[in-house]
Amino acid sequence: MKGFTDDQRERIQEDLLDAGRTLFAQYGLGKTTIADLTGEVGIGTSTFYQFYDSKEALYLAVLDAEGEAIARRLTEEGVTEGDDPETVVREFLRFLFDEIETNPLVRQLIVSDELDRLREYRTPEEREIERAEEVAAIRAFTDPFVEAGAVHGDDPELVARAVGAVPYLTLHEEDIGVDHYPEVRDFVIDTFARGLAVSEE
């Protein structure tokens, strides 16, 4: 990029990602402007467009980085380690629900209409790749249970997609009732994990 050293480009890139994460989490994609982003970083609009074609492109980059960070935390905390499928699935679901409910960036994405808006900026092929990667991440720890007959269901893909579907309960928090939601969430997690695992009795 003309006018910037490699170090400057790297710094601006990091600053844009940091600013994007902060502003998108606080205001959402719709209410965050490019002027907000450039003002936070201290660059001009023309400089922004040397890095991203649109604020949506930056948002997608922020989400990719956040997804990688969540995956690292999942590994570092050993959430999916263990031999008991009921415990592993329960802890995995609790981890995901906690991310959705406490991570402002993830919550902003899930509870708003921004998922629909962002679909316009991903090709069908890219969206399919994303879904496949999400399922593969779950299959990494559910497949051994399926192969061992430790969970109900002999289709690894179906089992993984079923596990991944449970956190979408968060979309219905208001329908369930804010006061009742935590109890319902915990009941669903426990019941699903217990029901998925094959009883040793």
Write structural notes for this entry.
α1 crosses α6 (104-111) and α8 (124-147) crosses α9. The protein has 2 domains: 1-65, Arc Repressor Mutant, subunit A, CATH 1.10.10; 77-201, no CATH class. The chain has 201 residues and is mainly α. The longest helix has 26 residues, at 6-31. The model has no long low-confidence stretch (mean pLDDT 92). 74% of the residues lie in helices and 0% in strands. It has helices at residues 6-31, 34-41, 45-51, 55-76, 85-102, 104-111, 114-119, 124-147, 156-165, 173-176, 181-196. Keywords: DNA-binding, Transcription, Transcription regulation. InterPro entries: Homeodomain-like_sf, HTH-type_TetR-like_transc_reg, HTH_TetR. This is Transcription regulator.
Keywords:
201 residues, mainly alpha, Arc Repressor Mutant, subunit A, 2 domains, 11 helices
